[in-house]
Specification:
Helix content: 55-70%
Mean pLDDT: 85
Order of helices and strands: HHHEHEEEHHHHHHHHHH
Number of strands: 4
Strand content: 5-15%
Shape: globular
Radius of gyration: 19 Å
Largest sheet: 4 strands, mixed
Number of helices: 14
Number of domains: 1
Strand order of the largest sheet: 1-2-4-3
């Protein structure tokens, strides 16, 4: 069975510490990405179950998947929902990628997703998110999805989608090793892309508010939500054996994502990007702290 585990996280951090560029000109445009996300994707190259699942999913996407996904969606562009399109343009410019194609999907679930291949990716935004969020908050969500494209996450996200929603019951059991590895990676990839959303908005309060709105989902209660009380749930969850159920999830629990995003907001990289004068932590230190926050076991 393919296992992701800790992937020798500390070795990856040590390697990054010695190789990280020191100046802006030599800076890797993916420096904001969570180190454990990078390490997991590197490990996938040696995992045969993941390789086979990805290859099959890409073939299915190219043959029938894209048409099925987009059959009930409305395309966003300069003439169709230009305000939303401009948010995609801003996000893409911030991250240095081509503006992705966006689609609006009629759904009451507050969600957005990115599918396709690394050469043919698109973003699907559920209509409820557009209704619940301000423009700046929606910019954060679209920036998050652009982060998936920027960091070459798309084929893995598409694979998770197919294994979860389209594989038959028997095939799911055959693909279980790949699914467990991919979900472990996905939790780490979400940390990277929460950072991408923050880089697009340059507003920590806005970015954390988006995550708490995803948890709450109520127009009537947003103004009454106390984020600090919400974060107390994280400590409560860590005191229960139920915390181990997160190992089956594709996303970290939302309090963890808020806490991890706050750590990134203290980094030198983010403070420089946001035009803040005060010094910040190195990305190595930030990732060490985030790793302790988001790990599921031990």
């Amino acid at each position: 069975m393919a296992q992701v585990g800790e992937l020798n996280f500390q070795q990856f951090i040590d390697d990054r510490r010695t190789s990280q560029p020191g100046g802006d000109e030599g800076r890797d445009p993916h420096d904001y990405s969570y180190a454990s996300d990078r390490a997991t994707r590197a490990a996938f190259e040696t995992m045969k179950p993941v390789e086979l699942a990805v290859a099959a999913s890409v073939r299915m996407f190219k043959n029938i998947g894209k048409a099925e996904l987009l059959g009930q969606a409305v395309k966003v562009g300069p003439r169709q929902f230009p305000r939303v399109h401009q948010l995609a343009v801003r996000s893409a410019e911030t991250l240095g990628i081509a503006t992705p194609t966006l689609y609006i999907v009629n759904s009451p679930l507050m969600n957005a997703a990115t599918y396709g291949t690394n050469d043919d990716a698109f973003v699907m935004v559920n209509s409820s998110i557009v209704d619940h969020l301000s423009d700046e908050e929606l910019l954060c969500v679209i920036g998050h999805e652009c982060g998936h494209i920027h960091n070459n996450h798309v084929v893995y996200l598409t694979t998770i989608h197919y294994l979860t929603n389209m594989a038959g019951y028997f095939l799911r059991w055959i693909a279980l090793p790949a699914m467990l590895a991919l979900r472990a990676w996905s939790r780490r990839a979400e940390i990277t892309c929460d950072r991408a959303g923050l880089l697009c908005t340059k507003d920590v309060e806005c970015a954390t508010r988006v995550l708490t709105k995803l948890a709450l989902g109520s127009h009537k209660l947003y103004d009454q939500l106390d984020i600090e009380v919400f974060l107390e749930q994280h400590q409560e969850s860590q005191e229960s054996v139920g915390r181990y159920t997160e190992v089956l999830a594709s996303h970290p629990w939302l309090p963890k994502r808020v806490l991890a995003l706050r750590e990134f907001a203290e980094s030198e990289l983010y403070k420089r990007h946001a035009g803040l004068d005060d010094p910040g932590r190195s990305m190595t230190e930030v990732d060490d702290r985030v790793h302790d926050l988001v790990k599921v076991v031990g």
